[in-house]
Amino acid sequence: MTIRTTTPNLLDNPPIPVQARLAAAWTSLMFLIIYIDYFHLYQPGEIDSIRGGVIFEFDISGTLMSTFFVVIAIPALMIMLSMTLPARVNRATNLVVASLYIPACVFNAAGATWDYAFYYALTIGVEVLILAFILRSAWTWPRRTASPATLAASLDSEPLRTPQQA
């Protein structure tokens, strides 16, 4: 009689590149911003307010609509930039944009009533958590470490430069 022992199938958990984590976070933020604005329309009187030419206490104008476009375009562009920029520029761009985006998200509470305080606290809280994740991911971007042997080898492999290039 044989005793059958089974080992559990362990799932592989490969590391996710920082660029992919950042792009995923910006994608999540972008969708949240869109849906939060969409759900805002369900508040009583909001459609009538928009028909009357006012959004969030602001008169509807080309400037306001352009501002709304930029608010959505930034995370959309950050998805692409997070995947394509070189590491050093990518890190700096994510740190700057995420830092500037936190006050922009908090500003969404402008004109809110106490009836919707929980809604705004929840939605803005989730947005800020995603932005904090972006900041942490960019801030802790792994550094490449080179051994002394690698550094010595790279000095030998440096291309020769002509006097005009030096």
From TrEMBL:
| A Pfam entry, by short name | DUF6326
Q: Which parts pass through the membrane?
A: 20-40, 60-80, 92-111, 117-135
The organism's place on the tree of life at top rank? Bacteria
Keywords for this protein? Membrane, Transmembrane, Transmembrane helix
Name listed for the protein in its UniProt record: Uncharacterized protein
- What is the organism of origin for this protein? Geodermatophilus dictyosporus
